[in-house]
Amino acid sequence: MDIKNYPAEPFRIKVVETVKMSTREERVKAMREAGYNTFLLNSEDVYIDLLTDSGTNAMSDKQWAGMMIGDEAYAGSKNFKHLDATVKELFGFKHMVPTHQGRGAENLLSQIAIKPGQYVPGNMYFTTTRYHQERNGGTFVDIIRDEAHDATLDVAFKGDIDLNKLQKLIDEQGADNIAYVCLAVTVNLAGGQPVSMKNMREVRELTAKHGIKVFYDATRCVENAFYIKEQEEGFADKSIKEIVQEMFSYADGCTMSGKKDCIVNIGGFLCMNDEQLFEEAKELVVVYEGMPSYGGMAGRDMEAMAIGLKESMQYEYIEHRVKQVRYLGEKLKEAGVPIVQPVGGHAVFLDARRFCPHLKQEDFPAQSLAANLFIESGVRSMERGIVSAGRDKNGNNHAPKLETVRLTIPRRVYTYRHMDLVADAVIELYKNKEQIKGLKFAYEPKQLRFFTARFEHK
Ligand SMILES: *Cc1c(COP(=O)(O)O)cnc(C)c1O
Mean pLDDT throughout 422-441? Predict the structure, then answer.
């Protein structure tokens, strides 16, 4: 593999955190005690933590300096003004409501924009997003292009909405029965797959004809913008900021988890253009999050988020970010390890169906693969398959086509050498894949079960 294609880290490291090296014996014990759920491990026992890119970002010196100028007034904080102005400039929406993190924004939006019985079409589900939609009487409908459900297809912009699926839903249910279209940039559960600008434009045109609103899940909008610049015709000379601005020009609003592309550890917000929705969101935010001028964040959190959002738009940052993830994916691919293709913006997804052909989906192959990877290497990953998908209203397991293990790369935290180590560990485990045994539930919580479920060997 040609390392020249991968830019070196565009930063210097000036604070370090020492990690613990553990023995295999210690990890076997830790994994057993955690019920074979990587979410239940103690972070202290983890060597390289690829559980999630959520809130695990390394902040810059400027962001830390921003923490010191936190204005912790209960109302009217100057940091809110900074964040508000930054979001409005970069995203172009008229109104912003801060929340403690992305799901806080999803809660508000679902309450104010969904009437019971309405449909909420989206490009593949996300766990907390769908939960809030359904809790408010909505029915999620997956309208992502078919290719997204096939891990082996290496096509660009696999996150695109299938316009025929959207048209069919409108024809069958009527525009009035559609709350809004939820368009995620990028699509986390499809493997971090981006959406093309062309698709966003077309979704806008189709929905405008029927008076249907479009809200983006903007969580990884900057990573999505990088793909557009790199791979979509006509965008090579545009800045990341210009691309982000155009993306949001085709939306009525968005929910944002600051814990991803805002390069902070906590925070989120909801945006919209509609005055009425803004009024309703402000009324609800007081109940669930805090004043409309802090939404569950400290002043210093808002300052760090405003600075982080600007830093995320720097080309050198986002190029390194996406390419570092790609580096890990390419290494695994070269060694013949089955991964979801193409490699997405924030993570490499191992294809557990092909990794563990000896296991059925009911044996939770991805869950067991994640547990075994930790035992063998101290690398923590997470299941994104049948366990994450949960049960439907009738109590049956959703059985998603994608049964994956996500190796999620935190922003600005690890080096290429760490990626080498992860790749070696996964390749070694792939050679010994028969040792990965099936699991069953020892404890299954009712909602969002992947977070706290416990397992035992079948
Ligand atoms: C993380 C995430 C969310 C929820 O955000 P939180 O900040 O974790 O509440 C929503 N959508 C996507 C795609 C995410 O990855």
Answer: 97
